[in-house]
Design goal:
Blueprint (H helix, E strand, L loop, with lengths): L19 E12 L2 E3 L1 H8 L9 E9 L15 H14 L3 E6 L7 H10 L6 E4 L1 H4 L9 H10 L3 E6 L1 E2 L5 E2 L6 H8 L6 E9 L2 H17 L3 E5 L11 H11 L10 E2 L11 H6 L1 H18 L3 H21 L5
């Protein structure tokens, strides 16, 4: 139940749920002039954070080398070599949950199937970045990869983003538009598809991401999820996170808060090289989100925190992959 401004929220001191977290959106590899070796990312997530209670149990991770383009507008590494580098790291470190990067337009679904056959237990999902591919998320070139996701029962994580012009007007033509992702997801209604960043691009973009997520639940024609990486980053009150929780609690199909996942996009942006050493930005983000949930949802807050930060992702991975262990 969401509280109103005059209701008693109780103490905000105990806003943890014994501290276990799965970060549903993490990377290693090269992005622009920064390089994030997998070992550095693992070291960062192996530490407890400054409040002394939270720790990241596992992270869904993909290799930026397969996402970022070179000067010829091709991914820095192809589907086989880039994904194999991450797979080798994940074989050594159980904290890592690899989602292999797919490159429709450059690679082939056959490449990904070779990896899925050989590393079926290790690979937990597929990752797509339509913006870097410059390929609309509803293009037919995604379909062979999605058929693999269906065949091997793997969830898919899509970068989602809503474009705007210089005047701030929303443009519904971006290749990573949430509705384009929804269109593809609806062709495979049994496969969970995660809207990464819940529609990147600011307040209006997140509102579109929320609308798309709710539309899929209302129609019950796709299994859309969303992660909250970069949502309300500069606002400690977390208005869009609170809004989507409230709407999912009261959706046309009842409580659907299982569709929301904690994620950060680390180690990019505020969670970049400096944050990997200092941890402050990551820790503050966790505290601000939990505090906002506690302020708005009172006695329901701890359950919601547990679901969003850990149980939803764990349930999703176990249900689709049968075994979360690697």
């Amino acid at each position: 139940m969401r509280l109103n401004s005059v209701q008693e929220t109780g103490t905000l001191q105990n806003i943890n749920f014994r501290g276990k977290i799965i970060d549903a959106h993490v990377h290693c590899g090269q992005w622009n002039f920064d390089n994030f070796p997998c070992q550095d990312v693992v070291q960062f997530f192996s530490k407890k954070f400054n409040n002394g209670k939270d720790y990241v149990d596992k992270v869904i991770i993909s290799n930026l080398d397969c996402i970022k383009n070179d000067k010829d507008c091709r991914p820095l590494k192809d589907e086989m070599s880039g994904n194999l580098l991450l797979i080798k790291e994940a074989q050594k470190e159980q904290k890592l949950i690899p989602f292999v990067v797919c490159q429709p337009g450059h690679g082939s679904a056959e490449n990904i199937e070779i990896l899925l056959k050989k590393y079926s237990k290790l690979i937990k999902g597929l990752k797509f970045h339509p913006t870097c591919l410059n390929l609309a998320a509803n293009d037919i070139q995604y379909l062979p990869y999605m058929k693999l996701a269906e065949k091997y029962n793997k969830p898919c994580l899509f970068h989602s983003e809503v474009l705007s012009d210089a005047a701030g007007n929303i443009l519904r033509t971006g290749v990573s538009d949430p509705d384009y992702i929804y269109e593809t997801a609806a062709k495979f209604p049994n496969i969970p598809v995660i809207l990464g960043h819940m529609g990147l691009g600011g307040d209006k973009a997140h509102e579109i991401g929320i609308s798309t997520l709710l539309k899929s639940i209302d129609k019950n024609d796709a299994k859309l999820y969303a992660d909250i990486s970069w949502v309300d980053w500069n606002n400690p009150e977390k208005p869009h996170i609170i809004d989507v929780i409230d709407k999912l609690l009261h959706s046309s199909n009842g409580d659907m808060t299982e569709r929301l996942l904690f994620g950060t996009d680390a180690p990019l942006g505020e969670f970049g090289e400096k944050a990997l050493k200092q941890q402050g930005a990551y820790d503050a983000n966790i505290i601000n989100i939990k505090t906002a949930i506690k302020k708005n949802f009172g006695i329901d807050a701890n359950k919601l925190i547990s679901k969003i930060f850990y149980r939803n992702c764990k349930k999703l991975l176990e249900k689709q992959n049968l075994d979360l262990s690697v």
